[in-house]
Amino acid sequence: MIVRRARTADVAAIRGLIDTYTPDRRLLSKPTVVLYEDVQEFRVAEVDGVVLGCGALHVMWEDLAEVRTVAVDPDHHGRGIGAAVLRTLLDTAREIGVRRVFCLTFETSFFERAGFHVADEVLVDAGVASELLQSPDEGVAEFLDLARVRPNTLGNTRMLLHL
């Protein structure tokens, strides 16, 4: 298995992984155009040239990023693919100077094994929150827990890791 930066040619495989988990709302669907726009944020895991896992790191502020869209082909669960993708994303976060990484997830035990904990605390001060509000990214608003954008009807958990 290798984990590498995603390429535009990987978007179809990423789309397929996302679509596997959207019917039960474990992942939210994203328009394919957004996947192409964000391809530089993604890492993929491949075995024998086949993409079996993916994940993205989305920087939100100087010291804060979100791990997004971590997905593994269901036939390959339990083989360390998701963990390898997550390790690569966290290494990338360290390389670029991010000190805190969060996620919104149903897979709390997976992220706990990587050192994440449930984040009940306020993660940014009012000044940073005000700046973040200028972002058109709905994920930013969800992070700030802005019910006006999208209430957390999914019931997922906000988790945080200090690097």
What's the layout of helices and strands?
Layout: E1 2-5, H1 11-21, H2 32-37, E2 42-47, E3 50-61, E4 64-72, H3 81-96, E5 100-105, H4 108-113, E6 117-118, H5 126-132, H6 138-143, E7 157-162
Structure description:
The protein is an alpha+beta fold and 163 residues long. The chain has one domain: 3-Layer(aba) Sandwich (Aminopeptidase). It is built from six helices and seven strands. The chain has helices at residues 11-21, 32-37, 81-96, 108-113, 126-132, 138-143; strands spanning 2-5, 42-47, 50-61, 64-72, 100-105, 117-118, 157-162. A seven-stranded mixed sheet has the order 1-2-3-4-5-7-6. Helix 3 links the parallel strand 4 and strand 5. The two termini are 25 Å apart.
Structural class: alpha+beta
Task: Please provide the count of β strands.
Answer: 7
Q: How widely separated are the two ends?
A: 25 Å
- Range of strand content: 25-35%
**Count of DSSP H/I helices:** 6
Low-confidence stretches: 146-153
Shape assignment: globular
The CATH architecture category equals 3-Layer(aba) Sandwich
Q: How many separate structural domains?
A: 1
Offer a quick outline of the entry.
With 163 residues, this protein is an alpha+beta fold. It is built from six helices and seven strands; from the N terminus they run βααβββαβαβααβ.
Brief descriptors of the model:
7-stranded mixed beta sheet; 6 helices; Aminopeptidase; 32% helix; 163 residues; globular; alpha+beta; single chain
